[in-house]
Amino acid sequence: MQRRSLGVLLLWLLAVSASIVVLAADPSKEPFTIRISCGSFDDVRTAPTNTLWYRDFGYTGGRFANATRPSFIIPPLKTLRHFPLSDGAENCYYINNVPNGHYQVRLFFALVADPNLDSEPIFDVSVEGTLFSSLLLGWSSEDEKTFAEALVFVQDSSLSICFHSTGHGDPSILSIEVLQIDDSAYKFGPLWGKGTVLRTAKRLTCASGKPAFDEDLNGVHWGGDRFWLGVKTLSSSSDDQPISTENVIAETLLAPNFYPQSIYQSAIVGTDRQPSLSFEMDVTPNRNYSVWLHFAEIENGITAEQERVFDVLINGDTAFKDIDIIRMTGERFTALVLNKTIVVTGTTLTVILQPVKGTHAIISAIEVFEIITAEKKTLTQEVSALRTVKGSLGLPLRLGWNGDPCVPQQHPWSGVECQFDDTKDHWVIDGLGLDNQGLRGVISGDISKLQHLQSINLSGNSIKGNIPLTLGTISGLQVLDLSYNELNGSIPDSLGQLASLQILNLNGNDLSGRVPASLGGRPLHRARFNFTDNAGLCGIPGLHECGPHLSVAAKIGMAFGIERHTYLGAEAEDDVGVAAVGEWVADGQVHAAHHAHLEQPKKALHRSRPSSLN
């Protein structure tokens, strides 16, 4: 392209708020690429491009099976991996040692070749904690719905791709592709960046009825090997017609998007009877979409400026006015790309190319992406601590606990409560509710690394071992229920440091030794402690005496505690009537100067959400 023409193009793109992007990738170098043939024990190569698919080893759990491919566009692979609900509702692939950067992540789905299993599972898919795709009923009968694709930034040298069961069949995955693309690829405007994920909603190449990938179109690897669905008409009711050329198209294979020349060598044009072109697709309402339109003037009868001028309307609004391809590119057979970000309030996205001067409208290709705000993830140290707790407690497989505990927000871990911390700009864990889950392990001291916990309920299990001393460092803890387990040893003195503690249930265990004076003897306001059914405990009213080893300080502390409880109890009768204040249960009786039934407070755990993209 001539320098003057390039300047005209840049000015035009600035005028219409199209994206101006810069060279970031070196096309002479190969991008990072990994392709996984799910469920395969061996590396596989597939025709016609001899593509290498790595064996599926060490990435995830689940089961492997033979695959039935529901669509001819799916890679010709023979196995898949599926995830029964008994293995947990959330299951993930973890791919490590991925260079930080921008990636196209594409997943192909297939059906398990077993008539006894649900023929078409329905499930959600997330990448790096952000939900970007939901497989709905009927997906296996439509080519475009047999795969899901997202553009995402990798920031910590690892990538997680998770599959979330909705209770309708086992999620089944045929293949995973992680393909590095230019860091500035599909830069659509000021909202673009590491805080967004782009979901590919539509990608069409016009006038060709044959689907193709970038490799089929002689593209370069930095383009990500995009899938282009070929269409000969934009609408079954339209009167448009296809045209094509073998001429070389200028300004292709350029950074950052590296579009292959082939998509500009064909086009759909209007006719005398219907000079306009119209494209329509279903979308999710109240979302942001990035629309990319591709043009090249390839029709033989159009040789100069002003011979084809048209407007582009998106959902009735003029997105681009007076499009003259030759004027904007400087010559024929030269690629032009226009981009517009829009908010769609309804369920339909419509693009109309309306002639203003000269002949009919023309278009070569269309891409539409849904713009998704990337989820803020849970603090790394808290995720690590939860995984340690998972292992030490012996969580059953059905609970899952894979991926990120708090995101996507539609699929948090079972038994985990989350809250968004604005100061840290991350999710944190503020509650564990794993009562009556058949746990048979021990409580790891790493549980204290969950410093935002307000409630821990591990009651009704078969947990063994000691109560970790480190529990006393969780300063905001209000409820600690370890009742009806098989805990042994003594009660740590450190629990007395929990100034916010309102409920302490240690009943129904095998604990022994003296109840710490910091618990049994301190004045407690509106708190209830239960130490019953521990034959070896001693040292507070209702329990047997600890004998000659009981210290004088402990006895004084207990006496002071009883007096303070009596005082607080009397005071409470004046102030709150029936509410018991400063109670403990030791022998089946509530010990305080005044008492009545006091229910365990129900903490209002809530899930705050970070601001969403509007």
From TrEMBL:
Keywords: Signal. It is found in: Membrane. The keyword Translocase does not apply. One of its GO terms (cellular component) is membrane. It comes from Leersia perrieri. This is Malectin-like domain-containing protein. Its main location: membrane. The lineage of its organism: Eukaryota, Viridiplantae, Streptophyta, Embryophyta, Tracheophyta. It comes from the Eukaryota.
